[in-house]
Amino acid sequence: MSRIVFLNGSFLPAEQARIPVMDRGFLFGDGVYEGMGVLGGRLIDNEAHLVRLERSLGEVRIANPYSRAEWTSLEEELVRRNGLAEGFLYLQVTRGVAERDFLFPKSTEPTVLMFTQAKSIVHSPAAETGISVISVPDLRWKRRDIKSLSLLAQVLAKQAAVEAGAQEAWLVEDGFVTEGGSSSAFIITKAGSIVVRPLSHAILPGITRQSTLALAQETGLTIEERLFTLEEAHDAAEAFLTSASNFVLPIVSIDGRPVGNGKPGPLTRRLRELYLGMAGASAEAA
Ligand SMILES: Cc1ncc(COP(=O)(O)O)c(C=O)c1O
Q: Would you say the pTM of this structure is higher than 0.90?
């Protein structure tokens, strides 16, 4: 079965989907995106992702082409047409097609693209073993709270990580960890506190971050929303990342040094279980 994508109002086989060369997403990275996890054929935390999409579009002044209800039914239709049980739904909106000029075009419809990717999230080997990260300088622009398309710094960071035998890059600015190349970064101190950077323009407000923190709070775990240094991360008892396509994933090594005993830590495992419970439960309830 060929992959079905959604492009500008139509569902069509991926090989038939075409975007004009003058699309501003292609020429300028002028657009925003979202990514939602799919479990049991249901979108996880979709409402929160659509709220963030609205905000990203508003911040870059692209009109939102659909209401939340319309987005949801288009997303669900795409998941259904692809028979996707578990994986990821990618959605992007660009400012559209126009003669190349930096200024906003006067009357251009946004380009809307969605596709799905199958992926094992629940039974991922990485979740069993944990992953390694390396630290790299954070070279990104200053509005990382907007989920914008221009991802060159993340491409370079994540490529450097893989070339160093790791699976994710932790981005560092002024000695403090901002976040992962495509994930939110957490450490757990030896005293058992979950430490995560507070929201600001410096990081993306991760939706999985938000849900994980809510679950941690309900469970009575201690949370400290504050900056943390790379040295603190090297010295932490546990570390993990969160993202829509991984949920909660243990980190067992940072810059080649083991975190704690070099195995996924007990609090991280617990948070992953809590998240899976929530995602499974919301997938069934939906
Ligand atoms: C830079 C960055 N931070 C954090 C995240 C995690 O966000 P979410 O949990 O909403 O997937 C992502 C996801 O792609 C990301 O690109």
A: yes
